[in-house]
Amino acid sequence: MAKPQYHVFICTNQRPAGNPRGSCAERGSLEVWQKFADILNQTQMFEKVLISGVRSCLGPCQAGPIVVVYPDAVWYKMVTVNDVEEIFESHFKNGKPVERLILPDAMFG
Ligand code: FES
Questions:
Q1: Residue among 6, 8, 10 nearest 64 (CA)
Q2: Overall pTM surpassing 0.90 (yes/no)
Q3: Where are the domains of the chain?
Q4: Atom 1 of ligand 1 has which residue's CA nearest to it?
């Protein structure tokens, strides 16, 4: 396997129902993860993109589902299945992160 250009971490952490912090899984991140996997399979960009579901909380739960792309250190917020194709096209194919989805620094903590 070649070293991929982009490593994508998708928070799939799930907390029990009623937890005040909620969780990315509760907000649809498993479906988002599946959409990333589907598009990766369709595009065959395996040498460029590696996708990992992360079962541990990445931190800014209130803005989930959270998706993080390295080495760019781009944090995406509130990602839905409808955003994934644009992330592939703009970020992974053309090198331009999707600005409207970027998590503001103020939302950390
Ligand atoms: S549960 Fe996903 S960032 Fe905390």
A1: 10
A2: yes
A3: 6-22+40-106
A4: 23
